């Protein structure tokens, strides 16, 4: 059975004056896919992601996210996606429960649904003992897991994760990826940027941006075959060196 595309991008471009930060990129992402969006700092991946999540208007090209046009339906896109930034969007001066309730309200969930989702999330993450603690007092790994779960509260079609595992230990990174796999298995599409090349191996497909352009796009296995290397880090190095 062929999976439908939930992100469709064609010749998408973003100019800042005379500078092309994103230079005519074209790709699609399928429902339930874990799609890795890689590139060095300054490659254009963050600019591209901002266009896709509806907070930056493209200069030219076409893009649809969750069935909505990035030019004319940015607000509809925001309602149908989850987003987790590198800095985590949780409020340190609210408790775990208060954070869940707050974001549930922003996402438009009813009070009954927020109560239900709060109970479910706390049980799933094993947070019963810390649910009334301020988020600011928790380890980074816990904040990360809660932040991802909060991004899934309203059951979005797509979740965008911007460098989600930066700064945490390898065990927590692995646990986080288990959460990503579960969400994808449940039908949520995951669009993730990462600078950890070993994490690219966990993705169904990977695109690699260099100087505003997508220079490679395929499964990790096929990219390694194409560049005749044993790991994704070497694929990235070959592309970066031109």
Automatic annotation (TrEMBL):
**Which InterPro entries does the entry mention?**
AAA+_ATPase (IPR003593), ABC_transporter-like_ATP-bd (IPR003439), P-loop_NTPase (IPR027417)
Q: Where does the UniProt annotation locate this protein?
A: Membrane
Keywords attached to this Swiss-Prot or TrEMBL record, sorted alphabetically, are:
ATP-binding, Membrane, Nucleotide-binding, Transmembrane, Transmembrane helix, Transport
Domain spans labelled ABC transporter:
7-236
Q: Which GO terms describe its cellular component?
A: membrane
How does the entry describe its membrane topology?
A: Multi-pass membrane protein
Could you tell me which Pfam families the record lists for this protein? ABC_tran
Instruction: Please tell me whether the keyword Transport is annotated for this protein.
Output: yes
Superkingdom in the source lineage: Bacteria
SMART domains, alphabetized: AAA (SM00382)
Molecular function terms, GO-annotated: ATP binding; ATP hydrolysis activity
Q: SUPFAM superfamilies in the record, alphabetically?
A: P-loop containing nucleoside triphosphate hydrolases
PANTHER family, sorted = ABC TRANSPORTER G FAMILY MEMBER 20 ISOFORM X1, ATP-BINDING CASSETTE, SUB-FAMILY H, MEMBER 1
What is the protein name stated in its UniProt record?
A: Putative ABC transporter ATP-binding protein
């Amino acid at each position: 059975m062929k999976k439908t595309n939930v992100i469709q991008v064609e010749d998408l471009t973003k100019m800042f004056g005379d500078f092309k930060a994103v230079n005519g990129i074209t790709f699609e992402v399928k429902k339930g896919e874990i799609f890795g969006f890689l590139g060095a700092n300054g490659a254009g991946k963050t600019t591209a992601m901002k266009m896709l999540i509806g907070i930056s208007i493209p200069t030219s090209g076409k893009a649809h996210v969750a069935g909505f046009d990035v030019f004319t339906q940015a607000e509809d896109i925001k309602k149908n996606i989850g987003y987790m930034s590198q800095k985590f969007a949780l409020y340190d001066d609210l408790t775990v429960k208060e954070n869940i309730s707050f974001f549930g309200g922003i996402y438009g969930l009813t009070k009954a649904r927020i109560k239900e989702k709060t109970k479910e999330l706390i049980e799933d993450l094993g947070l019963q003992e810390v649910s009334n603690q301020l988020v600011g007092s928790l380890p980074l790994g816990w904040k990360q897991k809660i932040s991802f779960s909060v991004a899934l509260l309203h059951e979005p079609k797509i979740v965008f994760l911007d460098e989600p595992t930066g700064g945490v230990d390898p065990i927590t990174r692995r646990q986080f990826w288990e959460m990503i796999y579960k969400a994808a298995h449940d039908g949520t599409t995951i669009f993730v940027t990462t600078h950890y090349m070993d994490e690219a191996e966990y993705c169904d497909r990977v695109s690699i941006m260099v100087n505003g352009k997508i220079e490679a796009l395929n499964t990790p296995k096929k990219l390694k075959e194409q560049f005749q290397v044993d790991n994704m880090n070497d694929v990235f190095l070959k592309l970066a060196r031109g």
